[in-house]
Specification:
The protein is an alpha+beta fold and 104 residues long. The protein contains 3 helices and 6 strands, in the order αββαβββαβ.
Length: 104
């Protein structure tokens, strides 16, 4: 079974939700790290995706670091999330980004 843009549905979503609920007291600050190609547009895409999911017109707090060769860039975001489901919705939205290489 797949979702939009052929993103696979995670069969372990329920256990991931349980783990998030067990290990975090919501609302809380949560760290997301996205690594991708095309540094110019990737940062904007990541920040916009998280801001949209947060329902906020301001950019979420984030830092950017490029690789020495310039081929990849990492964006670390630390928004305040309301629930484990909120974390999962942000991950799902980030997974749909075209230039995404890795998501942590």
């Amino acid at each position: 079974m797949t979702e939009r843009n052929d993103v696979p549905v995670n069969p372990n979503a329920e256990s991931l939700l349980e783990s998030l609920e067990t290990n975090h007291e919501f609302p809380c600050q949560y760290t997301f790290k996205a690594i991708g190609r095309n540094p110019e547009s990737f940062v904007q895409s990541v920040v916009a995706a998280v801001a949209e999911e947060l329902g906020d017109s301001d950019d979420p707090t984030h830092t950017v670091k490029g690789t020495p060769n310039g081929r990849h860039i990492s964006v670390t975001l630390t928004p305040v999330v309301e629930s484990a489901q909120h974390v999962m919705r942000i991950y799902k939205r980030l997974q749909m980004l075209d230039d995404l290489v890795m998501l942590m």
